[in-house]
Amino acid sequence: MPLHTDKIQWIPTLSTMLVIMANISKGTTMHLPNKKLLLGAAISLATLQAQAVPFMPTDARAMGMGGTGVSSAEVASTVQFNPALLSLTRDDDHFGLKIPQISIVVADDDGFIDEVEDFDEESELDNSGLSNVDLLSNVLDESTGPLGLEKLNQALTDLETAVLPAQYEAAETKLEESVNYLDTRLFSKNPNIDPELVVYSEAVANDLDDLNNKALRMNFGANMALAIPSKKFSLALSAGGQGTFSGRVLVSSDDSDILRRYPDATSKYLTAVANLQSTLKDFNDGVGGVSAQDVADAEEAVSDFAYGGPNRPADEGDTIIFENGDLAEGADDGSLNSQVEMVGVAIADLGLTASRVFNIKGHDIAFGVTPKLQKVTVFDYLYDLDGEDENGNEVEFDGDTITENSEEYTEINVDLGAAYQFGAEKQFQAGLVVKNLLGKEFESPRYVESNGTAGTIVEVSPQVRAGISHKTSWTKVAFDLDLMENDPVAFEDPTQYASIGAELNVWRTLQLRAGYRANLAGSDQDVVTAGLGISPLAVHLDIGLMANASDPEKEAGIALEFGVEF
After folding, report:
1. Each residue of 55-72: pLDDT tens digit?
2. Residue 325, by phi and psi: left (phi above 0), alpha (psi -120 to 50) or beta?
3. N or C: which terminus of the chain carries fewer CB neighbours within 10 A?
4. What is the tens place of the pLDDT at every residue in 216-242?
5. Exposure on the CB side of residue 8, measured as CA atoms within 13 A
6. 557, 77 contact by CB (below 8 A)
7. Three-class SS state of 161
8. Which stretches does DSSP call E strand in 96-146?
9. How far apart (Å, rounded) are the C-alpha atoms in residues 484 and 506?
């Protein structure tokens, strides 16, 4: 007797479920690796404290010497570190030009890039050479293929069109084989057969969780300066810009939970479907004890099937996956709820430095000042990890994206500095600088649009640094110390640098440099530095390198500059 298909109309929902899982898996492959082009990042809606701009001048010579310069910078480099030093240069220094000075530093203290690359790396779960995402995708592809869902759907069609008993029996056998295959391929509890869907889903969910709270930062700078030093009165003109971009990923628990819960939800749903199939078979075959009520109960178990959410067992999680025998609203689009946010600030300066030496009670002390016009640009961008922004538009990160999500401000600020030479031959030199004396706060576009309920505030705060150095005709050794802790721009640790550096100057033609910088406000963020300078005649070419002392992949940078001094 033909099997009434209205009794098994819920079975095709399993097809929808597996296709969704395939889309989630493949979506992860398509989208997550691309995030390394965007630096990654995440939600910080509840954390709206002011963030500060770091003290990291663009100077190749200083980078090679651990970042020192408050008491040791020379000629055109003085304007970035301490304007007072412009009056304490050598007697034969009359002119200095730096054009250009460029630098870039990338910091990955939390291993964000490594975690992103893990999505593409070979899985440890087998020897196929495939990633966890690819393994999960293959399981889903095979399960929706000729032996799985294709066969199941064909069996349903055959059952509906069967007329002869032999046709019905063949269709029933095909249905049973497809259900058994799916149960064995995806959810088998046989210890000799790996439940691959469960294993691979858990692995992908773990990979996603590993991205959580991983921060990435990039600093870049470009500068030029023209200096005319003199002990009586010195002047310098400088122009340049520095930018800091930071980001992190904050993975939504819904995303990792749904990857872990889908296999269990699908397994339980398949169990209900298989029970309905076997109950109908027994009823149609006239197996004793199987009544019409048993069929109705099995049908109700499928039609009312629910998984996840409120009023459900705690081990099913908070995300509703099944509701009333079908996928819950929002569970069928394969979208990710995790978000990405990037926060950045770029500051363009145009400054005029003035410096001179004053005799105070028999001591020659240099003072300097740099009033400057600043253009501050704050960038703040939020979008979904599945490639959509908060308005549902597909992410296309380009110049227009930066412009549309930036707020610009124009302000006046000032740097103040003092320096003093001492020792029998004036071989020691001490310096003190206060940069950005006029502290100001700048609101991000999202902060403005949300009336302060979202986004961030970037603060250009006063920064105080002291230094001391010793020099001979061939050598220079310097030490700098931040006298206050500086807040981060966004998600990284605060900074308070202590730096030491040395230079060997061979006939004022070849300079070899080395240094070390420690962050007193962070852990495992110390860097070692090295540099090389070539200065035939009046031409100067310098390069500086830096890297994290324990792991160069955590932070690395380079600076280059070309100049003329005479």
Report:
1. 778 899 999 999 999 999
2. left
3. N
4. 888 899 999 999 998 889 999 999 999
5. 27
6. no
7. helix
8. 96-107
9. 36
